[in-house]
């Protein structure tokens, strides 16, 4: 974490120096000092990152264990039906996805088949 903060402070310092060199030719010293004062808090700001200590089964899909061993890259363990049912909300859909195409592309056929027959289904005759 200290290395990330150190790198981010170096990035801010370098970007501020380059920014000031560019605007030094075109602005007065008063504008430059006002800009420096306005951007000064960026040098002291910490890096904000997401910290997820405990994620639900559906969100935490990183491989656990040694990925070089047989079955080591397995991400899900056990039945996920209860987790999927808990994540469903009994409300109408808010978003509509409209696929526009001539209907002959692989992606359009796959999307239509998955919607109509499910991911393991198939269209008869294709």
Automatic annotation (TrEMBL):
Keywords: Hydrolase, Magnesium, Metal-binding, Zinc. One of its GO terms (molecular function) is alkaline phosphatase activity. The keyword Lipoprotein does not apply. Mg(2+) binds at residue 102. SUPFAM superfamilies: Alkaline phosphatase-like. It holds the Pfam family Alk_phosphatase. The keyword Ribosomal protein does not apply. Its EC number is 3.1.3.1. Its cofactor is Mg(2+); Zn(2+). This is Alkaline phosphatase. It comes from Raoultella terrigena. The gene is phoA_3.
């Amino acid at each position: 974490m200290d290395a990330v903060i150190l790198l981010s402070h170096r990035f801010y310092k370098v970007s501020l120096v380059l920014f000031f060199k560019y605007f030094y030719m075109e602005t007065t010293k008063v504008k430059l000092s006002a800009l420096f004062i306005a951007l000064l808090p960026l040098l002291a700001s910490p890096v904000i990152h997401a910290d997820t200590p405990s994620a639900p089964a559906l969100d935490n899909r990183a491989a656990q264990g040694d990925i070089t061993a047989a079955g080591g890259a397995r991400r899900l363990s056990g039945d996920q039906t209860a987790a999927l049912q808990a994540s469903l909300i009994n409300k109408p859909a808010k978003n509509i996805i409209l696929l526009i195409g001539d209907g002959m592309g692989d992606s359009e056929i796959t999307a239509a088949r998955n919607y109509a027959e499910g991911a393991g289904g198939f269209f008869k005759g294709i």
